[in-house]
Design brief:
The chain is an alpha+beta fold. The protein contains three helices and six strands, in the order H-H-E-E-H-E-E-E-E. Helix 1 packs antiparallel against helix 2. The chain is globular, with a radius of gyration of 20 Å.
């Protein structure tokens, strides 16, 4: 009887491990999809899609230690002060911690800031939290590559 109990407990433990791995794989796939959707929405200026990507309390800190919230970003994009012609992400690495996740990657962008062209290459960190069953980006930090390399 004791052997049966140990076998059943071991089986339950192994099943829970496989289930957790499957969930983590699904979460990684969803986070990769969200990063692609978010990058496309930045280029197209789709504030509705960005509203789904960014949590309402999202903030970004850039290389100059400036901070901007979601409302400020949406205002700049909405009034045409900030326009992206392209935004490409690469080298994405995802780590998941239950209902929180960290995505680190490289981003290259081109566009216009108040009518002046810009281009940048940066390393970014997006922090996601699962809210109401959906992943939302709650924080972004960027660091420029020296000389755009």
């Amino acid at each position: 009887m004791k052997t049966l109990s140990i076998l059943m407990a071991s089986s339950a433990f192994l099943l829970s491990m496989f289930s957790a791995r499957a969930d983590q794989t699904a979460d990684q796939t969803e986070l990769l999809r969200l990063e692609k959707v978010g990058a496309a929405a930045i280029v197209s200026g789709d504030l509705k899609a960005l509203g789904e990507f960014f949590a309402t309390d999202w903030k970004i800190v850039d290389s100059a230690a400036s901070m901007m919230d979601r409302g400020q970003l949406f205002k700049l994009m909405g009034d045409g002060s900030l326009k992206f012609a392209s935004y490409e992400e690469s080298d994405l690495q995802i780590r998941i911690y239950g209902d929180a996740a960290v995505v680190i990657g490289t981003g290259e962008s081109k566009g216009q800031w108040k009518g002046e062209p810009f281009g940048s290459k940066e390393r970014f960190t997006d922090v996601f939290v699962r809210q109401d069953g959906k992943w939302r980006c709650v924080s972004t930090h960027t660091s420029d590559f020296p000389d755009g390399k």
